[in-house]
């Protein structure tokens, strides 16, 4: 992390008029234009003393040496516009012929309504759970058209997103379940072959807790190499500032550079979980890695079995507050 960055603008008398601090990740660059802020300051008769813009929005990081940017979306659409054609918007309470309630016991209905799913005009996609007067919940879920995200033999796949989970906590957050994840391509159109096709949960956050979860689902359910229905998971608090309080970068890597492959999970560059090929049965590993690849998903569910597994669901109650969005700054896939 870099040190706090500051905008400081002073009036003609020299007194401080505006000062803002923001801790930010080293590689992130703001989309806000200095010209716009400078023009506003000058028109108000103010002088800019120091200039470094804190922003909720940042460019997709360019690939590091040896890496290739395979896919990205930085969500720069106009306010109110839906996702680009790179994405499919899921609607309803299940896939056609798939398990009810999306297979997880969540209670919301997904829609394409801009009230649930839209760009915010500031470089973010906004997924907002809402509740109507009758107590019915709606939200949104999208998935990439592409289903071929995969680590090449001898290579590494990196799936990454910079986002802020729903900024709500305590009783008001009960039932919130924002997620960024990937499903094996054979699931599309089948909907009965989970978990054998593999699922990489890059980021899951529940009930407004300052905790990010990374989980692998595979093999058979219940039981199997991935201990279904729970999966093989790890978690940690978000570094420095709570997950709900600001944007963090969530990353998953599939590393095939060694004879024994490895999966790794990170938040803000800090690894907190890994699964080795040696932990999974050979047949299960083959089933989840030998197909075309994976597609990516972003959603905010309400209610559902996670993190309680088979022990029951977490359901919103009357104290749960609607209207707290997950903001997604960018999604990127890199290969090395």
TrEMBL record:
<feature type="domain" description="GH16">
    <location>
        <begin position="55"/>
        <end position="336"/>
    </location>
</feature>
<protein>
    <submittedName>
        <fullName>Beta-glucanase (GH16 family)</fullName>
    </submittedName>
</protein>
<dbReference type="GO" id="GO:0004553">
    <property type="term" value="F:hydrolase activity, hydrolyzing O-glycosyl compounds"/>
</dbReference>
<dbReference type="Pfam" id="PF26113">
    <property type="entry name" value="GH16_XgeA"/>
</dbReference>
<dbReference type="GO" id="GO:0005975">
    <property type="term" value="P:carbohydrate metabolic process"/>
</dbReference>
<dbReference type="InterPro" id="IPR013320">
    <property type="entry name" value="ConA-like_dom_sf"/>
</dbReference>
<dbReference type="InterPro" id="IPR000757">
    <property type="entry name" value="Beta-glucanase-like"/>
</dbReference>
<dbReference type="InterPro" id="IPR050546">
    <property type="entry name" value="Glycosyl_Hydrlase_16"/>
</dbReference>
């Amino acid at each position: 992390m870099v040190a706090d960055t500051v905008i400081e603008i002073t009036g003609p008398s020299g007194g401080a008029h505006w000062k803002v601090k923001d801790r930010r990740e080293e590689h992130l660059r703001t989309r806000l234009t200095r010209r716009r802020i400078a023009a506003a300051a000058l028109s108000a008769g103010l002088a800019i003393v120091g200039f470094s813009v804190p922003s909720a929005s940042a460019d997709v990081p360019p690939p590091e040496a040896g890496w290739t940017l395979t896919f990205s979306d930085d969500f720069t659409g106009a306010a109110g516009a839906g996702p680009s054609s790179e994405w499919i918007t899921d609607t309803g309470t299940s896939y056609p012929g798939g398990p009810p309630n999306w297979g997880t016991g969540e209670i919301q209905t997904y829609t394409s309504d801009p009230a649930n799913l839209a760009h915010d005009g500031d470089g973010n996609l906004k997924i907002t759970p809402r509740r109507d007067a009758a107590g019915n919940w709606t939200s949104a879920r999208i998935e990439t058209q592409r289903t071929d995200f995969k680590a090449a033999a001898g290579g590494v796949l990196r799936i990454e997103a910079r986002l802020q989970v729903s900024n709500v906590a305590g009783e008001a957050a009960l039932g919130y379940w924002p997620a960024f994840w990937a499903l094996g391509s054979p699931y599309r159109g089948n909907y009965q072959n989970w978990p054998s096709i593999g699922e990489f949960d890059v980021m899951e956050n529940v009930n407004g807790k300052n905790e990010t979860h990374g989980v692998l689902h595979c093999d058979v359910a219940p039981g199997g190499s991935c201990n279904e229905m729970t999966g093989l998971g790890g978690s940690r608090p978000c570094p420095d500032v709570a997950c709900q309080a600001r944007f963090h970068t969530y990353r998953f890597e599939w590393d095939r550079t060694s004879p024994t492959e490895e999966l790794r999970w990170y938040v803000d560059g800090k690894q907190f979980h890994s699964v080795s090929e040696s932990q999974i049965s050979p047949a299960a590993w083959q089933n989840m890695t030998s197909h075309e690849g994976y597609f990516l998903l972003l959603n905010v569910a309400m209610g559902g079995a996670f993190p309680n597994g088979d022990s029951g669901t977490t359901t919103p109650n009357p104290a749960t507050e609607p209207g707290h969005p997950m903001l997604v700054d960018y999604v990127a896939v890199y290969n090395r």
